[in-house]
Amino acid sequence: MISETYALIARYHPPGGPSHDVFMTHAKAVSKKALAVAGRFAGMDLDFIEEAALLHDIGICRVRAPDIGCHGSLPYICHGIAGRDILNEENWPRHALVCERHIGVGLTRRDILDQKLPLPALDMCPISLEEKIIAYADLFFSKSPGRLEEEKSVESVRESVGRWGQDKLEIFDSWHRLLG
C-alpha cells in the first residue's frame, strides 16, 4: 500500500509543486523516526505506521502557510482536521485519525475552547500506541525551510511543548519514558 500512499500524496502535494519538497522531507523524517521507535515494540503494524507518518500532514495543502508553499485558506492549526477530512474522503479512516490527533501531544476540547481555536470542540488526542508514536516523532522535526532534516533535541522539544502548559509537558515526558 506504500505505492498508494505516495500516489495519494502526489494528488495533494504534486511533485514540482510549491509544497512538495517541504512536505516530503518532513514526512520522511517523521516516518523514519516513527519506524525506529515502533521497531522496539513487538506486534506493531509497521506498514500502517509508515503510511500514517507519511500522511500525517497531508492537510497542510489547505492551510495558509506561504513560507512552506501552502496557499490554502485555513489557519495552520487546522491542518490536522483538514488532513482528517482529506483521508476520510479518500477512504483511509484509520490514517485520518492520525491526522486529526497528531497536533503537539494532542488537543483537548478544553484546549480548543479556552484558546478559542478555530477547530471543532472535541478531544483530538492520540489514543493508540501507533498514534502516539507518530505524534511523538513529529515533535522532533520542523517544517521550517533549512531545518527540515535537523532533528531537535529532547530538551528543545520539552521547551517547545512546555510553553503549552505543565500538563502537556507531563504527557511528553510520559511518552519519552515509553518511546524515547
Describe the protein's architecture and organization.
The chain has helices spanning about 1-10, 20-40, 45-55, 80-90, 95-100, 110-115, 130-140, 155-160, 165-180, and strands spanning about 65, 70. Helix 1 (about 1-10) runs parallel beside helix 3 and helix 3 (about 45-55) crosses helix 5. The chain is built from 9 helices and 2 strands, in the order αααββαααααα.
**Helix proportion of residues, in percent?**
55-70%
Instruction: Kindly report the oligomeric state of this protein.
Output: single chain
Global geometry: globular
**Mean of residue pLDDT values:** 96
Integer count of domains = 1
Distance between the termini: 28 Å
Could you tell me the strand content as a percent range?
under 5%
Main sheet: which strands, in order across? Answer: 1-2
